[in-house]
């Protein structure tokens, strides 16, 4: 949304944002695609650069709409990575200037395990029931299997 609104004058941002949001409110992927294209076609005559951006990014932006609703509500937001970035920035601002690249890696390395602890199974954003709803991948297009973890 931010990338799209960057191609518009500030005065038209609210109107365009409301139109773009309509695609994300649709119940399924096909309806979202149709709405996205209709909005893009409506905005393209006035802002061709925005129209090109919407055409090029449609598949990426609407990919999460193919998942079950329980997953969509968690994936449409970038809150989790933004929260992690804010925590790294907060700790880095205390240090100010880092003496070496190794010290930066140490700081980020201290923050990431804490973030991982917060995302343990009891705090999982989607339960195992919701994971069972995911569509099975195409057997012909099977991803390579990872070796089992050593015990």
What would you say this structure looks like, in words?
The chain has helices at 2-5, 10-24, 29-43, 48-61, 69-75, 79-95, 101-118, 128-132. The protein is flat, with a radius of gyration of 21 Å. The protein has eight helices and no strands. The model has no long low-confidence stretch (mean pLDDT 78). α6 packs across α7 (101-118). It folds into two domains: 2-67; 78-123. It is mostly helical and 151 residues long. The longest helix is centred in the last third of the chain and has 18 residues, at 101-118.
Quote the distance from N terminus to C terminus.
44 Å
Question: Main beta sheet: strand number and arrangement?
Answer: none
Mean pLDDT score: 78
Secondary-structure content class:
mainly alpha
Number of helices: 8
Helix content: 55-70%
Number of DSSP E strands = 0
What is the global morphology? flat
Are there runs of 5+ residues with pLDDT below 50, and where?
A: none
Integer-rounded radius of gyration? 21 Å
Helix-strand blueprint:
Blueprint: H1 2-5, H2 10-24, H3 29-43, H4 48-61, H5 69-75, H6 79-95, H7 101-118, H8 128-132
Tags for this model:
flat, 8 helices, 63% helix, 151 residues
In brief, what are we looking at here?
This protein has 151 residues and is mostly helical. It is 63% helix and 0% strand.
């Amino acid at each position: 949304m931010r990338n799209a609104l960057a191609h518009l004058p500030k005065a038209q941002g609210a109107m365009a944002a409301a139109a773009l949001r309509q695609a994300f409110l649709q119940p399924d992927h096909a309806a979202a695609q149709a709405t996205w294209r209709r909005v893009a076609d409506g905005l393209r005559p006035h802002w061709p650069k925005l129209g090109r951006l919407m055409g090029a990014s449609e598949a990426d932006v609407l990919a999460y709409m193919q998942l079950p609703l329980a997953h969509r509500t968690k994936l449409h937001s970038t809150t989790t990575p933004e929260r992690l970035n804010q925590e790294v920035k907060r700790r880095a601002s205390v240090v100010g200037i880092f003496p070496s690249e190794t010290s930066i890696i140490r700081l980020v390395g201290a923050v990431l395990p804490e973030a991982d602890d917060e995302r343990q199974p009891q705090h999982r954003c989607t339960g195992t029931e919701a994971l069972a709803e995911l569509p099975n991948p195409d057997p012909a297009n099977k991803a390579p299997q990872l070796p089992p973890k050593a015990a």
